[in-house]
Design brief:
With 192 residues, the chain is mainly α. It contains 8 helices and no strands.
């Protein structure tokens, strides 16, 4: 029974993560690109964007619940919030550095994917934490219930699933970033 329960709750956790994270990736890369192509906007934004980046996302859960009045919508917003700032900042930094190095897209891609990898970890931690606090499904929910029922083996099983998924997502992003950076131009070559 636990295997079936783990599987469906794993899917629930992944759904929460991916809905919030993918939205943050799309919007974060777009905003980061726009920030990165303009030197003045970049100088201003890199400091301003540090402010929301320092907020612990789960601390905003009560506000999100008040605004959205539904736990799942509030959870998605918190996962989104947890991921977007790192993506915007790293994309902007990557675009700036790539432009400074003669449109070196490899530099930009490596920086963007560094931000994506960091963001997926923060989003994953946020999703699991939110499930423990408010949702009635997901790996976080399973672990919390196992704790309340003193089922240590189920807690460990859930933790192993969380770690395995986190590692898999990290490695997939790392591999994708490396492949993309090899496929693109490394900028203008200097002759001489």
């Amino acid at each position: 029974m636990m295997e079936q329960s783990i599987f469906f709750n794993l899917l629930s956790s992944l759904q929460l993560l991916l809905v919030g994270y993918i939205s943050a990736v799309v919007l974060g890369i777009l905003i980061g690109y726009l920030v990165g192509i303009n030197r003045i906007v970049y100088q201003f934004a890199k400091w301003i964007l540090q402010v929301p980046n320092t907020i612990v996302p789960v601390a905003l859960l009560p506000i999100s619940l008040i605004i959205f009045k539904e736990a799942e919508a509030a959870a998605i917003v918190i996962v989104f919030f947890s991921a977007i700032w790192s993506i915007i900042l790293n994309t902007a930094i990557g675009i700036r550095h790539g432009r400074k190095q003669g449109r070196n897209f490899r530099v930009a891609i490596k920086q963007i994917f560094e931000g994506l990898r960091f963001a997926v970890w923060i989003a994953w931690f946020s999703a699991i934490s939110i499930e423990m606090l408010t949702l009635n499904q997901g790996l976080g929910f399973i672990i919390w219930n196992a704790y309340k029922e003193s089922k240590v083996d189920n807690i460990i099983e859930g933790i192993i699933c969380i770690a395995a998924i986190g590692l898999l997502l990290d490695q997939l992003l790392d591999l994708t970033g490396n492949i993309l950076s090899e496929l693109v131009s490394d900028g203008q070559k200097k002759e001489g």
